Amino acid sequence: QVPRAPSQPLAGSESRRFTSKHSKKALKASLTLGILLGMFFVAWLPFFVTNVAQAVCDCVPAGFFDVLTWLGYCNSTMNPIIYPLFMRDFKRAMGKFLPCCRRSAEPRPSAISLSMRNSNSGPRAPTSLKNVL
Questions:
Q1: SUPFAM superfamilies annotated for this entry (predicted)?
Q2: Closest residue by Cα to residue 36 from 6, 76, 1, 93
Q3: Do the Cβ atoms of 55 and 48 come closer than 8 Å?
Q4: pLDDT at 104
Q5: CA-CA distances (angstroms) from residue 76 to 38, 44, 46, 70, 118?
Q6: What are the backbone angles phi and psi of residue 58, rounded to the nearest 5°?
Q7: ∠ CA 124-125-128, rounded to 5°
Q8: 119 close to 113: Cβ distance less than 8 angstroms
Q9: How large is the average pLDDT for residues 98-115?
Q10: Taking Cα atoms as reference points, which of 35, 62, 60 lies closest to residue 50?
Q11: Domain extent listing, the chain
């Protein structure tokens, strides 16, 4: 259930729509998090278990250990693929910076506006030690 303020009563159908909308978002967020954590554990758990076994009995072949290490590295390469598949905000952010992902309707930022934004130049409010602390 979604908590609401007592001063803002919602109609029955509007309340159900509001709850349904937020439950869909929560379900999608849970699914994304579950996939990311599942991929992480599948990729890195064998490496860490084998690492502990290697420290205890020194019985793990070097080639097998290398394969498990590279499995963990593959997980790091999968994250940039998983995030855009499930997160709309991530897609939008990447679309702003990568020309291949930009939509034709979005204006392309000019080099001058990017350099002005990144250079921290321009009008600034006077700062003093009191304002900082």
A1: Family A G protein-coupled receptor-like
A2: 76
A3: no
A4: 59
A5: 13, 10, 15, 10, 28
A6: 55, 45
A7: 120
A8: no
A9: 60
A10: 60
A11: 43-97
pLDDT of residue 5: 54
Tokens of 12: 């029955």
**Residues 6+ away with beta carbon under 8 Å from 69:** 47
Give me 129's structure tokens: 């030690």
**Do residues 85 and 49 lie in contact, with contact meaning Cβ atoms separated by under 8 Å?**
no
Task: Give the HSE-up count for residue 30: Cα atoms under 13 Å, Cβ half-sphere.
Answer: 6
Could you report the per-residue pLDDT of 32-76, keeping only the tens digit for each?
Answer: 888 889 989 999 999 999 999 999 998 889 999 999 999 999 988
Q: What is the structure's pLDDT at 126?
A: 55
Handedness of CA 58, 61, 63, 69 (dihedral sign): negative
- 3-state helix/strand/coil string of the chain: CCCCCCCCCCCHHHHHHHHHHHHHHHHHHHHHHHHHHHHHHHHHHHHHHHHHHHHHHCCCCHHHHHHHHHHHHHHHHHHHHHHHHHCHHHHHHHHHHCHHHCCCCCCCCCHHHHHHHHCCCCCCCCCCHHHHC
Distance CA 56, CA 41 (A): 22
